[in-house]
Amino acid sequence: MNNKYEFTGVKRGGLKQIRALRSFGAVVKGDIGGWIGSEKNLSHDGSAWVSGYARVYGDARVVYGPFNGNSTTDFKAAILATLRVLPVGSDYILYKRVNKVRDGVFKSCRDSRFKYVTGQESSVDNPSTDPLVSCGSGLHVADPLYWQGKGGDTLIACQFRLEDVLAVQEGKVRVRRLLCLGEVTV
């Protein structure tokens, strides 16, 4: 096995801090990472990483591709670890690339029949609840830079609640419903 991190020897509250043994994704060899309970919490494969003050422990596991968890607490830790985003209360704001139809009305890049309207909630019928399916049925949101070069002519801000999270993959979150806050410029 080609380990990508080691423990620094620093411990806090039963968690151990990590250090990158090699460069991968946005991580540079030698980078000090966040805190994990054990190696079962963070895969040595792919580019999954726990950074900053993020903590992953218990049954939570950050892996290449999707975050594999079984509670909203796990999803909160995964969103913080992979996107470095914190909620305001239980609400998050992330972004989505779409095609603009007219002011305040946007259509999905994947399904032109699916519309987002500023100030209105959008939801998906029968979303995939399997956190291991990377591009399952649901609404995908991410940080604004994730969407560069991935189609769409407009970036919209979207608000969602932690209880609507279905999966956290590297760089994006899949939710069952969200509120379109409107067009943003980068």
What would you say this structure looks like, in words?
- The chain has a 6-stranded antiparallel sheet with strand order 9-8-7-12-15-10, with no helix packed on it.
- The radius of gyration is 17 Å and the shape is elongated.
- Helices cover 6% and strands 41% of the residues.
- The protein is mainly beta and 186 residues long.
- The termini are far apart.
- The protein has 1 helix and 15 strands, in the order E-E-E-E-E-E-H-E-E-E-E-E-E-E-E-E.
- The longest helix is centred in the middle third of the chain and has 12 residues, at 72-83.
Spatially, the strands of the biggest sheet line up as: 9-8-7-12-15-10
Helix content: under 10%
The coarse overall form would be elongated
Radius of gyration: 17 Å
Average pLDDT works out at 84
The stretches of 5 or more residues where confidence is low (pLDDT under 50) are 65-71
How would a textbook summarize the main sheet?
6 strands, antiparallel
Task: Give the strand content.
Answer: 35-45%
Count the DSSP helices.
1
N-to-C SSE string, H for helix and E for strand: EEEEEEHEEEEEEEEE
The tally of strands reads: 15
Instruction: Give the termini distance in whole angstroms.
Output: 41 Å
Give the class from helix and strand content and strand pairing.
mainly beta
